[in-house]
Amino acid sequence: MINKSHSSQILIIIASLLIQLIPIKELNSQDQEEYKQSLQYQEELNFEKIPKWQKLKTNEDSLEKSIIWEKIEIENNEKQNNFFSSNDKDQLLKNNNKKNGFRSASRNLIYKDYLYPEMSFWIPSSFKHSKRFTYTFTGQILGNPTNKSSKDYCAWGEFWEKCADSQYFFEATPIITKYFSLGVNYSQQESFLGSRSNNKWEDGGQSLGFQIKTNLDSSQGISIIGNNLYNIYGGGGPNMKYPESGEKITADLGRSYLFLYSKAWDLGNYFNSKSPSLINLNLGFGNGRYKSAKEVEREWVNLGKYEPIFSLGLALNKKISFFTEYAGQYAGVGISVRPFKMPFSATFMLRDFQGSKQGYINCKDGNPDNCRATIDSRLVFHF
Prior knowledge:
Blueprint: H1 4-49, H2 60-64, H3 86-96, E1 103-105, E2 108-111, E3 114-118, E4 135-142, H4 156-163, E5 165-176, E6 181-188, E7 206-217, E8 220-231, E9 256-268, E10 277-286, H5 293-299, E11 307-315, E12 320-327, E13 330-337, E14 344-351, E15 374-382
Antiparallel strand pairs: 1-2, 2-3, 4-5, 4-15, 5-6, 6-7, 7-8, 8-9, 9-10, 10-11, 11-12, 12-13, 13-14, 14-15
């Protein structure tokens, strides 16, 4: 038999075990409940991820309708008061602002930001003046002989007196718009070095003219140029006839108007040069000294009949160019060079070959057989 003390101890042990088992069972029940809730939540999430497709009803009749275009006439009652329409102006502006278009600085061309040598001697370029340079100064010497009374050969002491003529030119182009450029030409036609001007400013043959140029597109231009139109101190002589006997003439290059067209071509890069080779054509009509020698002989050097003139130049690169030119009284071939980086050019033209009908005015006794080749030269500086 188990005594009471032992039985009571056994009951206490059993009771304590039961007390410990009850919370464990409760915990297990809670875990199970949380696990069930977790599974349910996961199933809900998975269900939401499944795409739900729904059939939509469309109006098939509206889809079958075709788009109908209707032409609407717009009346334009605006009157064009200007010579150019707005579209023409926009196109002209676009052409004038084309990248790498041709521009001029007197007889020099500017292309792709390169300043090229001169492409002619007497005939200017018609391209709109470049904004890079506003002013051009030119000093030139016309070679031996210069008139019928000159000898075929001159000693050095006679050179400045009878057998050569020096002139100076200054061109200013302060107005350069999107469409055109407008400049003023100044010339001093008698040398201060010899006795022709007697070292007097007023006897230097001072004259003024103008030039207006515009581009038709990036490679074509037109111009109107007036040379020596106003003689500041007189001495320019009459128009279309010879001066009176004893009348002093100092501005003897002649008054003239030129109507010119210019065209230029980019030939590509040759001779291992960064600057491309160019061809430049200038042609048009002129009077004054730009008339033929026969007309100059008949009407003298001021104004008169208009006759065709032209020049054709080839620039190998930005350093050297060759040209041929027919400028009425003066006709020949030439070369122009730019030996330095500064905007400076030196140009030489050979003219008045023996037998040349264009040179007989400058030949002794007016006989073409007495003509001897003459070299005209000039130095040009832009700034």
